[in-house]
Design a protein that fits this description.
Layout: H1 2-13, H2 19-28, H3 34-59, H4 63-93, H5 106-135, E1 141-143, E2 146-148, H6 156-191, H7 207-219
Antiparallel strand pairs: 1-2
Helix pairs in contact: 1-7, 3-4, 4-5, 5-6
């Protein structure tokens, strides 16, 4: 067993000079590629920031702070949308996806995939519904470092519908993210199938596995 691991690590070290080794290791990889991992954690940080600014805005009584928080919230929402679209493009073209753990049943895998697709859908819908609600108010608005005049007339019914969709999708996103995090923690620490290692190679069970995961991710990006 130790000899086999040593050979795999040696193959990682020489991967840059051997495409065949890279292909073989891609089939054995236990984590996503480096770009997918970066997209994942960047999205996680931005979504947490979105939730924080939304809650803070709703609780604040300082008008100046509320305006600032709203600008940050809208800017983060637009950034999340572009990040998600870029992530989907990368996933469909260049991403290296590790296989599911062997212990997972087909039904469990299907449930995980469905929840993943729902997360992607909400990460696209949520910012669009929010920005649509802003536009259909028929007022000027701030975004990033600019201030924009009204772009379309006021459509009260459309604004109300988009705002309801925005709030409902926000709750859906929070529930799915919470479930996603709890599932990963449960699988990693209770079932011990190293699920977290897929998006966090540094959590590999052993130093040799950690080196293999990190080396493979670097060689394939």
């Amino acid at each position: 067993m130790a000899g086999s691991k040593s050979q795999e690590i040696a193959a990682v070290d020489s991967c840059s000079s051997s495409n065949a080794d890279c292909v073989m290791l891609a089939d054995k990889r236990t984590s996503f590629d480096g770009v997918s991992i970066a997209f994942h954690w960047l999205t996680a940080v931005m979504v947490l920031s979105l939730i924080t600014t939304a809650v803070w805005h709703s609780q604040s009584h300082d008008d100046v702070l509320r305006v600032l928080l709203l600008r940050i919230h809208r800017s983060l929402g637009v950034t999340v949308w572009f990040t998600t679209v870029s992530r989907l493009i990368w996933r469909m073209t260049h991403a290296q996806l590790p296989p599911f753990p062997d212990q997972m049943t087909q039904a469990h895998r299907s449930l995980v995939q469905i929840s993943e697709y729902c997360l992607y859908a909400l990460l696209v819908i949520q910012p669009l519904s929010g920005f649509g609600a802003v536009l259909t108010r028929g007022r000027s608005f701030s975004l990033f470092w600019g201030h924009f005049p009204p772009l379309i007339p006021h459509y009260p019914a459309v604004e109300a519908a988009l705002f309801v969709l925005h709030r409902l999708s926000a709750w859906g996103l929070i529930l799915l993210i919470t479930g996603h995090a709890l599932h990963a923690l449960l699988r990693h620490f209770v079932v011990r199938d190293n699920t977290l290692q897929r998006m966090a190679p540094m959590l590999a069970a052993t130093p040799s596995q950690r080196q293999l995961s990190l080396g493979t991710a670097k060689s394939l990006t």
